[in-house]
Specification:
This protein is α/β, with parallel strands linked by helices and 145 residues long. It has one domain: Rossmann fold (3-Layer(aba) Sandwich). The chain has five helices and five strands. Strands 2-1-3-4-5 form a five-stranded parallel beta sheet, with helices on both faces. Helix 2 runs parallel beside helix 5 and helix 3 packs parallel to helix 4. It is globular, with a radius of gyration of 14 Å. The mean pLDDT is 96. The structure holds ligand CA2.
Amino acid sequence: MTQRTVLVLNGPNLNLLGTRQPEIYGHDTLADIEARLVARGAELGLSVECRQSNHEGVLVDWLHDAKLRGVGVVLLNAGAYTHTSIALLDAILSTQLKVIEVHLSDPEKREPFRHLSYVGMAAVDCVKGLGPDSYMVALERAAQL
Ligand code: CA2
């Protein structure tokens, strides 16, 4: 795949979207969000590929693989790894991928331990606090990169 591919990576627990804490994360499932991204991507001429893992190293491997395949932009909601993972920061820095950080909630308006973002230290952009629409806005921005 090529520069016109957008890879959407979701990290730990985001497979549970739509089942708990809707007041924070909304009612949509991850499958709902992914379907909308794929459909909007088609309208924008982008091939949208979506993956989710609860495992830090798997997310690192997918970033490496994205670089090898020439993926243009990655939308990354690393979940709690956002705030802990130097490995993900290093993966973004070492691949030089264009990564847009995405969050359903606004971590900076939540507990202090969510205020630090390692992903944000290497991402080219960040969309947060819009619920599932955060992903849609990020996709629109990806199309402009
Ligand atoms: O707001 C976001 O998108 C977060 O990345 C979500 C993470 C959280 O650790 C980040 O600080 C902000 C947590 C994802 C948990 O997903 C759930 C899904 C369903 C029910 C409960 C949690």
